From TrEMBL:
Pathways involved: Amino-acid biosynthesis; L-leucine biosynthesis; L-leucine from 3-methyl-2-oxobutanoate: step 4/4; Amino-acid biosynthesis; L-isoleucine biosynthesis; L-isoleucine from 2-oxobutanoate: step 4/4; Amino-acid biosynthesis; L-valine biosynthesis; L-valine from pyruvate: step 4/4
PROSITE patterns noted in UniProt: AA_TRANSFER_CLASS_4
Physiological role: Acts on leucine, isoleucine and valine.
Homology family: Belongs to the class-IV pyridoxal-phosphate-dependent aminotransferase family.
Record-given protein name: Branched-chain-amino-acid aminotransferase
UniProt-listed InterPro entries: Aminotrans_IV, Aminotrans_IV_CS, Aminotransferase-like, B_amino_transI, BCAT-like_C, BCAT-like_N, BCAT_family, Class-IV_PLP-Dep_Aminotrnsfr
EC main group: transferase
GO cellular component: cytosol
GO MF, one annotated term: branched-chain-amino-acid transaminase activity
Catalytic activity: L-isoleucine + 2-oxoglutarate = (S)-3-methyl-2-oxopentanoate + L-glutamate; L-valine + 2-oxoglutarate = 3-methyl-2-oxobutanoate + L-glutamate; L-leucine + 2-oxoglutarate = 4-methyl-2-oxopentanoate + L-glutamate
Amino acid sequence: MVQKADKIWFDGKLVPWDEAQVHVLTHTLHYGVGVFEGIRCYVCSDGSSAVFRLQEHVERLFLSAKINEMVIPFTQEQIFDAIIETLKANRQPEGYVRPLCFIGAGAMGVFPGDNPIQTIIATWPWGAYLGAEALEKGIRIKTSTFTRHHVNVMMTKAKTCGNYVNSVLAKREALADGYHEALMLDAEGYVSEATGENIFMVRNGVIKTPPLGSILAGITRETLMILAEDLGYTVVEDRFTRDELYCADEAFFTGTAAEVTPIREIDRRTIGEGSRGPVTAALQDAYFKLLRGDNPKYGKWLARYTI
Ligand code: PMP
């Protein structure tokens, strides 16, 4: 159960958490055309707080809206500032931020007409998405019976609410079968991503990740690629199959919520030594240092705030 904060920013105003309500004929509730972001903020080692890559998340929110032909009635700067304002109002030094733009009530057909585009920003404390132990020991995953979206069925570059029906189905199946997460293949059978994470594999020191086809262009994915190159690794964006993945020395997921989570088993095959591998450990360490403000090269990626 999500831990309540004091306020939710709703169409320009901070309202008490319990009063952030919508009408049951909200268009998005029926047809799934809404766009959202998942953002994290951390306490830095100097005691201040920082939202990680806030600018990029806000930009992606607006691109998701553009793809879905939704016009957000605020500027990117206003949403950026509203996120900081909400974190401060909730006195939240660390946690998760969820902006969501949705089509409000009005027309009830599939064509949303001029129904209002509404925006909320919620924040709440949220620990490790796949559990604290997962970050250290790694997780067990299983190839899903659900295929990831074909690029002409759903707009996979947008973080659209309705896209997540596929994720929820796959996640439920993976958990019911005793796994931590689902591995999803694209419509051609190549490894795509997970229900809310991008995937990387490591073999013979080379790091590989699927190209931007059916996957969401993860901000953590991009961050990890940059950090890996800084550490001297070669990173290749290329398609690979599940059997190539079975032979990996290491594999890991990336995502704002999941951060850098090692994968220790795929479809009953142990990956590497069945624990967090050295490349994953090095990248995880570099990622957490960056988030905590200990990598001055990327200070620009931290939107600092004090409560
Ligand atoms: N793929 C999907 C489907 C996701 O929902 C997410 C989480 N936003 C990611 C990948 C990872 O993206 P990011 O690193 O930007 O959080």
